[in-house]
Amino acid sequence: MTVPNVLRRVIRSRPRSDDGGGGTMSLRDHLSELRSRLIKALLFVAVGAVIGWILYPQILDVLKEPYCALPPDRRFNPSNGPDCQLAFFGPLDGFVLRLKVGVICGIILSSPFWLYQLWAFVTPGLRRNERRWTTLFVFSATLLFLAGAVLSYFTIGKALTLLVNLAGSGTVAVIAVPNYIGFVTSMLLVFGAAFELPLLVSMLNLVGVLPAARLIKWQRIAIFLIFVFAAVATPSQDPISMCMLAIPMSMLFELSVLLAWLHDRRKARREAEAGFGDLADDEISPLDVSVQPVEEPAELDPPRR
Predict the structure, then answer these.
(1) Which residues are registered as beta bridge partners of 173?
(2) Which of 12, 3, 5 is nearest to 209 (CA)?
(3) pLDDT mean for each 10 residues of the chain (305 residues)
(4) DSSP string spanning 1-26?
(5) What backbone phi and psi angles, to 5 degrees, belong to 300?
(6) Whole-model pTM?
(7) CB of 141 within 8 A of CB of 134?
(8) How many CB atoms lie within 10 A of CB 244?
């Protein structure tokens, strides 16, 4: 199946009936549904942001832990005590910080709901048996995002230690809290979003855009591009963060290639059993279109008088 055919199938021709063969949506209806899905997703994020605003003190204690793990002589410690404090220098920095943390928390907490809206927008263009994978998609996407965020949290401490030690002895890291929280939240989002790679590859393979044969052919260049992405996308751009992101992404990509190979193998076996195994994805199945001559009815005898 070629890419234009896939796009036509997923976007322009979106069946709405349960059997996948009902009427289709016009472009206006398609954009209207997209707007509806985006509004619902934003509402879920807003509810999560309110929860993040309320739980801000507890969230801040968790986020500043990698900074507080630095040796006392390498971080800002005006009282020379065991307490760990973050500083800000603008009158609005506190409000902006709390708002930013709330929004990031809202995105993470509401991820199952807006991921469902994304899947619900795509699934009408898929077959009925493919649309049954909604629960698996939402669960996998949420689990992968959380796994990436957790890995980034443990990576932040190592990366921060490396970056601070590069300044040499006799220096102290006085990091403004907006800059530090921006660094931490960027790491969380980058790692979480990057871990969605196998799910994206599997979806593209499911709709026929990326067959397994092409993925296997592109494996080396894909892994190289993953390392390039990790080197550029990580906020600190240090070697520890790059490797901690690139190596798991490469392993997840290999897993997605294996899943795509299993899916295409099963699909080929199913088509072979149906008798169409030798056809390409964009070929029409053979039909008996021969025209049989129709015999003319015999002339009726004229009625007797």
Answers:
(1) 75
(2) 3
(3) 46 44 63 85 90 89 84 71 73 85 87 81 64 75 88 87 79 80 87 88 80 87 92 84 90 89 84 62 53 54 56
(4) --HHHHHIIIII----STTS-S----
(5) -75, 140
(6) 0.70
(7) no
(8) 22
